[in-house]
Design a protein that fits this description.
Layout lengths: L6 E6 L3 H9 L8 E5 L4 H6 L1 H11 L3 E4 L13 H13 L4 E5 L3 H4 L5 E6 L6 H14 L6 E4 L6 H11 L7 E3 L8 H5 L8 E4 L18 H8 L9 E6 L8 H11 L4 E6 L4 H9 L7 E7 L4 H6 L3 E2 L1 H6 L4 E5 L2 E5 L2 H11 L2
Helix pairs in contact: 1-3, 9-10
């Protein structure tokens, strides 16, 4: 259903002129799609639709127009007729997609463009997530509209469960990941599980005031650095690095580069605070056709937990009494410790 890559750069700015300066400055240079969050410029769009049309042309790639109030981490306070007026103006300006929250979809009606029917509602479990998605499916025009399900997550386990659910959804028709800092890794992994799009924050542009659009968004540049030139797919082998804290870790970028150099379609993502058991369970419950978990690494203070998750313990981990690496093959997890050999090699090199 899409003829472009999945990475969306979200732009949220106070004026259309600021949007233009952000694009000129390269805020979305590494993205496949540009989302124009119109929350703060709704009146300007209605008053000067030609300016929005010029902005769409300047993007030089597919665009999404979105207008959110509190239901979608936004600030728009207008009523439904005002919302419809802004979104129709965006459709006339030539955007590729219009994002419409499911609460307003029926009242807003046909907007003259492909729709992304979205929900950011909380869900207490996968059954509620599935019910939300089925409600959106009933509103969507098959083959034209996309369904977007982005519940907040309080734990990494919730994020992993959402991805597993996504793997069984119809290919190309669903956008799904979790909001919130603890689940930001789902934005890195979502395309591997079948998400048609995934959203990231704009890269910094000096002198342009771009606002945060949603909790847990990663920078476009960081996502690209982790992914490399190839977008994750169902053939990608997945791994996680678990620890507390973990957001600062350079491992996803460093290991991603090493995997690419070795010709391996693989990706390492940071999972916080500690989801060792959840990743082990996710590997055991991998979809029949989908990405496979190849292993994980553990940082302090979870190296004892890693050891406890193993079916087999190599001699280095056994001697140290802790593991920093788990690899899975044939459903069995093997624990090892690369710290000790690295320290030994460093000492030997130093004489």
């Amino acid at each position: 259903m899409t003829d472009h890559g999945p990475l969306v750069c979200t732009l949220l700015a106070p004026t259309l002129e600021a949007f233009a300066r952000a694009l000129e400055g390269g805020a979305a240079a590494r993205a496949d799609v540009v989302e124009l969050r119109l929350d703060r410029v709704a009146d300007e769009v209605v008053r000067d639709p030609a300016a929005l049309a010029a902005l769409v042309a300047r993007a030089e790639r597919p665009t999404i127009a979105a207008l959110h109030g509190g239901e979608g981490f936004g600030t728009f306070a207008g009523d439904v007729p005002a919302r419809a007026e802004v979104l129709r103006a965006a459709a006339r300006a030539g955007v590729t997609y219009i994002d419409v929250d499911e609460r307003f979809a029926a009242e807003v009606g046909d907007l003259g463009a492909r729709r992304i029917l979205s929900t950011h509602r909380s869900a207490s479990g996968i059954e509620e997530v599935d019910a939300l998605a089925r409600g959106l499916d009933a509103l969507a025009e098959p083959g034209r509209d996309l369904v977007k399900v982005v519940p907040p997550a309080a734990t990494a386990e919730e994020g992993l469960a959402l991805l597993r659910w996504l793997a069984d959804r119809p290919a190309e028709g669903t956008i799904a990941f979790c909001s919130g800092d603890v689940a930001s890794f789902t934005r890195l992994l979502a395309p591997a599980f079948g998400s048609a799009l995934v959203y990231a924050a704009a890269d910094d542009v000096p002198g342009v005031d771009l606002e945060s659009a949603a909790p847990g968004q990663l920078r476009v540049g960081h996502v690209r650095d982790v992914w490399g030139p190839r977008t994750p797919s169902r053939a990608t082998t997945l791994a996680a690095v678990c620890g507390r804290p973990i957001a600062h870790s350079a491992s996803p970028v460093v290991h991603g580069a090493a995997l690419r150099q070795a010709g391996i379609d693989g990706m390492l993502v940071p999972v916080a605070p500690a989801a060792l058991a959840a990743v082990v369970a996710a590997a055991a419950d991998a979809p029949a056709e989908g990405p496979r978990w190849g292993g994980l690494s553990a940082t302090a203070p979870f190296k004892l937990d890693a050891l406890a998750c193993a079916d087999r313990v190599l001699s280095d981990a056994q001697a140290v009494g802790a593991a920093n690496t788990l690899a899975v093959a044939g459903g069995a997890w093997t624990a090892s410790n690369t710290d000790a050999p690295a320290v030994r090699a460093a000492l030997e090199a130093a004489g």
